[in-house]
Amino acid sequence: MFVLSVIKDTIQSKPHQFDGDYEERLTTSINNRYSNKVIPNVGLAMNLFDFVEIGEAHILPGDGSTYTQVVFRLVVFRPFVGQVLEGVVLTSSKEGVFITLDFFDDIRVPPSRLPHNSRFDQNEQSWYWAYQTSPEGEETRLFMDPGKRVRFRVVKEIFNDVQPGEEDNGRKSYELEASMAESGLGCMLWWLEFDDEGEEEEGEEEA
User: Fold this and answer.
1) How far apart are CA 36 and CA 193, in angstroms?
2) Are the beta carbons of 121 and 163 closer than 8 angstroms?
3) Would you say 42 and 174 are in contact if contact means Cβ atoms under 8 Å apart?
4) Fewer CB within 10 Å: C terminus or N terminus of the chain?
């Protein structure tokens, strides 16, 4: 889910920042610049991991700031395609189920990747899995309500070239498309209940 990415950048330190440890100043500047920001084709930057190389500080004519070329490693959120993760249902719409990891909300499970025979309840504004409980076709509605913990598989990552202000209109710079259309995926409570039912049946047979 998290990877280390090597970044090369020139970091500015202003005169009022000159007091204190130099590496601490660079660390603060790097985290302020990158933390919680999407780097195109890299992922969502979390924080500085370590320094690879710190160059000499230079002062430009007429500018009291120092500029240092730094090579460093960032902790980046970028799950690989096929990875199974756990999150919480944030909201639902006809476009699918949206999942949050607390620090990242742009995960969508489209209707085509929900469990087979899933339907959208307009009144509840929630998707449910119409689980068949008998050969006669009786069904139980297993809702994917907001707040429920779910397990999902990453099937696609999407990087968008988003201009300032476009995210306010719903366009995201980094999105994940996920699937819950496999056994063991979906609301985690479903599978705990199924396991409990299986254990009860085994106990009855042994008796």
Assistant:
1) 37
2) no
3) no
4) C
* The two three-digit tokens of residue 166, written as one number: 């476009």
Q: Which residues of 79-101 are buried (b: 16+ CB within 10 A; e: fewer)?
A: beeeeebebebbebeeebbbbeb
| Residue 133 tokens, joined | 């409980």
Top-tier CATH class for 2-77: alpha beta
Q: What is the 3-state secondary structure (H, E, C) of the chain?
A: CEEEEEEEEEEEECHHHCCCCHHHHHHHHHHHHHCCCEECCCEEEEEEEEEEEEEEEEECCCCCCEEEEEEEEEEEECCCCCCEEEEEEEEEECCEEEEECCCCCCEEECHHHCCCCEEEECCCCEEEEEEECCCCCCEEEEECCCCCEEEEEEEEEEECCCCCCHHHHCCCCEEEEEECCCCCCEEHHHHHHHHHHHHHHHHHHHC
Residue 201 CB: number of other CB atoms within 10 A? 10
Please say whether the dihedral angle defined by the alpha carbons of residues 192, 77, 14 and 164, taken in this order, is positive or negative: negative
Residues 97 and 181: their CA atoms lie apart, in Å, by: 12
Domain boundaries, the chain: 2-77, 83-190
Average pLDDT rounded to a whole number, residues 95-118: 96
147: number of Cβ within 10 Å = 7
pLDDT tens digits, 48-103: 999 999 999 888 877 778 899 999 999 999 999 999 999 999 999 999 999 999 99
